[in-house]
From TrEMBL:
InterPro entries: Pantoate_hydroxy_MeTrfase, Pyrv/PenolPyrv_kinase-like_dom, Pyrv_kinase-like_dom_sf. Homodecamer; pentamer of dimers. It comes from Terriglobus albidus. GO terms for biological process: methylation; pantothenate biosynthetic process. Belongs to the PanB family. This is 3-methyl-2-oxobutanoate hydroxymethyltransferase. It is an enzyme of class 2 (transferase). 3-methyl-2-oxobutanoate binds at D61, S62, D100, K130. The keyword Aminoacyl-tRNA synthetase does not apply. Its main location: cytoplasm. Keywords: Cytoplasm, Magnesium, Metal-binding, Methyltransferase, Pantothenate biosynthesis, Transferase. The active site is at E199 (proton acceptor).
Length: 302
C-alpha cells in the first residue's frame, strides 16, 4: 500500500490526479472549497464515484440497511464490512477510503478498537476508520491516531444509538444539547480526528461547529455550512426502498431505469428475441451433429 492509495505505485497511470490525503482535506477546508463524499459498497459503484472525482468514499455501516436489508445498522459484522471494503479498495485510486467501524467493534475497549481498526487497514486497505460518539470516544481516537490510523469522528444523529434515541431523531435542538455536541466536536478534534461527520442536527449548530473547528466537518442532514457533504449512494439514485429522511435529495432515478431494463430483458427472453444468432456461438463448418427434431407442438396444443 503506497502513501497515495495505490497498492502498486508502478501501476499508477501517469498524469492522474494526486490521491486525497487527510492533509488535502484540511487544505480544502482552509481554501473554502467544499469536500465531496459519498458512501460506496462495491466495485462498480466505487469506480464510478472515484472516476467522478468524489473526494472521500465511505464504506458505511449503512451497508446493513441499504444493501443487506436490515432494519438498522446494529447487526452488520466486521467480516461483512471487510468484504465490501476490499471490493471498494480495488476500485478506488484517488478518493480517501474511509471504513465505518461497525457496532460492537469499538465499544468494549481501546484494545478492541485498535485491533479491529488495524484489520480495516491491513485486510481492506482503509485510509481511515470512522466511529460514532462524542467526548467519551476521545481516548479511542487518541489511541488510533498514535497507531497511525487516521480517524473520522461522527456525532449528532448516530444511527448506532438507535435504541437510546428511540428512533432516528434530529439531535442538538436544545441549547444544552447543542453545547454538548460542540464540546464533543472540540474533544474529538483535540484527540486527533482528521474530520468529523455531523449528522441530523440543526443547520445553525452545524455552522457553529464548522466555524469553531480547524478540521473539516462533513454534513448529512446538517445544512449547507459544513465543509463537505455526504449522502448514501442508494438515496442519491433512488434505490432505497424506504421513506427517505428530509435531508435526502434523489439526484437520479436509477430504479426506474432498472425497472425498464428488467421489463425489456424479461420480454426479450419470453418472446425468444434474445439471444440473437450474433449473440450465440457456432460450430466450426466442418463439424456436423445429428439433426435436431423439432417437437410437434400442434399435437400437444390439441
Ligand atoms: N439509505 C440510508 N440513508 C441514510 O441516510 C442512512 C441509512 N440508510 N442507514 C443508516 C442511517 C439511518 N439514517 C436515518 C434514517 C432515518 C432518518 C429519519 O427518518 N429522519 C427524520 C427526522 C425526524 C426528526 O425530525 O427528528 C426525517 O423525517 O428526516 C434519519 C436518518 C441515516 N442513515
Ligand atoms: C451516512 C454516513 C455518514 C454513514 O455513517 C453511513 O453511511 O454508515
Ligand atoms: Mg455509518
Amino acid at each position: 500500500m503506497s502513501l497515495t492509495g495505490f497498492r502498486d505505485a508502478a501501476a499508477r497511470p501517469l498524469g492522474v490526479a494526486t490521491a486525497v490525503t487527510p492533509a488535502s482535506l484540511l487544505a480544502l477546508k482552509r481554501s473554502g472549497a467544499p469536500i465531496t463524499a459519498l458512501t460506496a459498497y462495491d466495485y462498480p459503484t466505487a469506480r464510478l464515484a472515484d472516476e467522478a472525482g468524489i473526494d472521500m468514499l465511505l464504506v458505511g455501516d449503512s451497508l446493513a440497511m441499504a444493501v443487506l436489508g436490515h432494519e438498522d445498522t446494529l447487526a452488520v459484522t466486521m467480516d461483512e464490512m471487510l468484504h465490501h471494503a476490499r471490493a471498494v479498495r480495488r476500485a478506488t485510486q484517488r478518493a480517501l477510503l474511509v471504513v465505518d467501524l461497525p457496532y460492537g467493534s469499538y465499544q468494549i475497549s481501546v484494545e478492541d478498537t485498535l485491533r479491529n481498526s488495524l484489520r480495516m487497514v491491513k485486510e481492506a486497505g482503509a485510509n481511515a476508520v470512522k466511529l460514532e460518539g462524542g467526548a467519551a470516544m476521545a481516548s479511542r481516537v487518541r489511541a488510533l491516531t498514535a497507531a497511525e490510523i487516521p480517524v473520522v469522528a461522527h456525532i449528532g444523529l448516530t444511527p448506532q444509538s438507535v435504541n437510546r434515541m428511540g428512533g432516528y431523531r434530529v439531535q442538538g435542538r436544545s441549547e444544552i444539547e447543542a453545547m454538548t455536541l460542540l464540546d464533543d466536536a472540540l474533544a474529538l478534534e483535540d484527540a486527533g480526528a482528521i474530520a468529523i461527520v455531523l449528522e441530523g442536527i440543526p443547520r445553525e449548530l452545524a455552522a457553529l461547529i464548522t466555524a469553531r473547528l480547524h478540521i473539516p466537518t462533513i454534513g448529512i442532514g446538517a445544512g449547507p455550512k459544513c465543509d463537505g457533504q455526504i449522502l448514501v449512494w442508494h438515496d442519491v439514485f433512488g434505490l432505497s426502498f424506504r421513506n427517505a429522511p428530509k435531508f435526502v435529495r434523489q439526484f437520479e432515478d436509477v430504479a426506474a431505469l432498472m425497472r425498464k431494463g428488467l421489463e425489456e430483458y424479461r420480454t426479450a427472453v419470453s418472446e425468444r428475441t434474445f439471444p440473437r444468432d450474433e449473440e450465440s456461438y457456432h460450430l466450426p463448418t466442418n463439424v456436423h451433429l445429428p439433426e435436431t427434431e423439432e417437437p410437434e407442438l400442434s399435437v400437444w396444443s390439441e
